[in-house]
Amino acid sequence: MLKDEISKALAPLKLERVEPGDYDKTGYHLEVDAAPEQMPEVAQALKSTGCFLDSLTALDFPEAFHVVYHFSSFRELCRTAVKAKVPKGKAAVTICRVYPGANWYEREVYDLFGLKFTGHPDLRRILLPFDADFHPLRKVFETEKADA
Asked: How many domains does the chain have?
């Protein structure tokens, strides 16, 4: 099974977590947690098993961004979710050299969340105007005092 092949390819990387997923509940056959700096190696391992990058997005939590990568395969139904926790004020690492299609996904995450990707060849806004001074999916709220 491809899930076992992927687990074997990821084993030398000593990742935080590589566990079978519950496909019926989550839609993933394999769930992986990795450090942000490990992502190029993780991407290369997944590519070596014939997986492609399905999507890439982020979630904004108070202490960190969680960058979520989704990988799939045409050869066999096997979906893998990889999460990398990036502390606020730090940058993620690009996987564009492994998956060139990540270029636009990473630009979208930068545009909407303000999360930078080190090593990215052209990190600039892709959806919003270049002079926009905000990132609309960040969970930054100003507290307002209600007038009584």
From this structure: 1
